[in-house]
Amino acid sequence: MSKPFFTVYCLIIYAFLLAPIAVVVIASFNAGAFLTFPPQGLSFRWYLVFFNNEVFMRAIRTSLWIAALTTVISGIIGTMAAMFYVTHAGKLKETVRVAMLAPLLLPEVLTAISLLFFVYSVGLGTQNLVGMIVGHVLITLPFVFINVSASMESYDPAWSLAAQSLGAGRFTRFRRIMLPLIKPGVIGGCLFAFIISFDVFTISFMLKGVGMSTLPIQLFDYLRTNFTPEAAAVSTCSIVLTMAVVIISEKVLGLRIHRF
Amino acid sequence: MNVPSKKRLGPLLLIAPAAILLGVFLVLPYLNIVVMSFRMPGQGTPYGPGFTLGNYGKFFSDFFYVQQVINTLWIGFLTTFLCLILGYPVAWQLARGASAFRAVGYALVLSPLLVGIVIRSYGWTILLGNNGIINRTLTGWGLIDGPLPLMYNALGIIIALVHVFLPFMILPIMSAIQGIDPSLEAAARSLGASKITSFRRITLPLSLPGIQAGCILVFVLSLSAYVTPSLIGGLRVKTMAVTVVDALIDTFQWPFGSALALMLSVTGAIFVVFFGRLTVMKWKA
Fold first, then answer.
1. For residue B25, which residues of chain A lie inside 8 Å, CB to CB?
2. Half-sphere exposure of B223 (CA within 13 A, CB side)
């Protein structure tokens, strides 16, 4: 098989990967009242409708708020676990790894259902956001763990020992020596935690309380009954928001994105 | 060494938050859902007092549910197979192609992962619907008289699922191929093997761990997918995950919903283990 054949084949697959996303973005500039292709004229009409839609705006705020909290909690817990895994786990290493990756390997639907039953069984219910945030932390934890532990593989414990011999306490050693060196991993992990939390559907769907929808849920509910291009405008803004988070982190922090 | 010395206690505090979180909010809930599947159905409550095997009896006696598990597995197989066929050449190109092409390609493969699953499925409804772009274009060109049934059926679900999970197939295979020393392929070629032979005898077998990881990932993810089947399948085609969530949210039958969810998960797990046995198990996530 020749090189041009491969190039063309890959281009077709890339087009396939981008098609549904491109279609949503293009549809959002439709001037007409319904989704038609090609769009009937270009306008920002549906963006105005969206920005004046209090329900969607509230959902965006809820999503950002939950994603921020999730990122902080997951970032701290995941980094601590990765430190244990790389330097102290010893014989338990494989067990710790499998346990930390478990939320990723288990079906999200089952995790969501079991968590829903559990919060009701212990009387927590879905009147507040505790259940949903716990669910988001569970789902994002493996990504922080993978990223941080990968960046720690190249960390030499001798550096900590050197600092210790110079009189640095446990926390100083972490803050002044280890954290600056593993920073790309921590930030990469937190970035994933934020993006994934912003997009997580099933967990949020099962554990949401009344009037506490996140953006994906609000969008899903809307799509079941409405066919106006407003949903496309909402989607496009959500895509732009995620891309902005990624690009800003890349530019400011200069890190590379590796999911695996 | 049962009593942890002071030296061991410090490190244990590092893992404690994660251990408590996973123990309380993952292990306990999973045990709870197993217990729940044996509970009596409730009258106006999610579940009643006492235990029964009836929820599983209801599953096996009603062919509707067994048929649905078979459909879901079938959709999962086809999705996995198509992802493998479509994704492998791309993974190969990303691992071995020209470097300028590689960077852009890698970004293109990753980019759909940054777009939420609801949005991606929504994109497919715009493309596949009766008034969607594909049908409008084909009728516009006079190639077809009526719209092709692309949505509200298994075909639509599979197309959208392949799209959603293709990156999860490409990335593990890509890193597996990257891990193969190119001099092995060069050696095979210098010994007179054709490109195809060198691929079949060297590259393909050595990339099997990546294929396996990708297949398991895509299969498991597609079995438990909820958003895509419910938006694309509508009310006509339901996968197991959709039925389970409906049973829990709409009709509030916790014990039966639990039994359904567990039956699907166990069936899926059996296939994954079987698949792992068939191929060499070299599992590194």
1. 115, 118, 134-135, 138
2. 27
As given in the structure block, the two tokens for residue B201 are 């005898």
What's the burial of A56, exposed, middle or buried (CB within 10 Å: 0-12/13-18/19+)?
buried
Looking at the complex, report in whole angstroms how far the Cα of residue A192 sits from the nearest Cα belonging to chain B: 9
DSSP A178-217: IHHHHHHHHHHHHHHHHHHHHH--HHHHHH--TT---HHH
CB under 8 Å to A188, separation ≥6 — which residues? A147, A151, A255, A256, A257, A258
Q: What are A55's two structure tokens?
A: 């329900």
Best of B13, B26, B249 to substitute, by most chain A Cβ atoms within 10 angstroms, is B26
Task: Please say whether the beta carbons of A62 and A53 come within 8 A.
Answer: no
Q: Give the C-alpha separation, B171 to B151, whole Å.
A: 28
3-class SS string, B158-214: HHHHHHHHHHHHHHHHHHHHHCCCHHHHHHHHHCCCCHHHHHHHHHHHHCHHHHHHH
CA A163 to chain centre: 35
Residue A122 gets which letter from DSSP?
T
pLDDT at A50: 86
Mutation pick from A40, A113, A237 vs chain B, by most beta carbons of B within 10 Å, is A113
For residue range A8-49, what is the model confidence (pLDDT) as tens digits?
888 999 999 999 999 999 888 887 776 666 667 778 888 888
Nearest residue in chain B measured CA to CA from A193: B114
* Chain A residues inside the 8 Å CB shell of B171: 259-260
Q: What is the pTM of this model?
A: 0.86
- The verdict on a CB contact (< 8 Å) between B114 and A76 is no
> Percent of chain B beyond pLDDT 70?
94
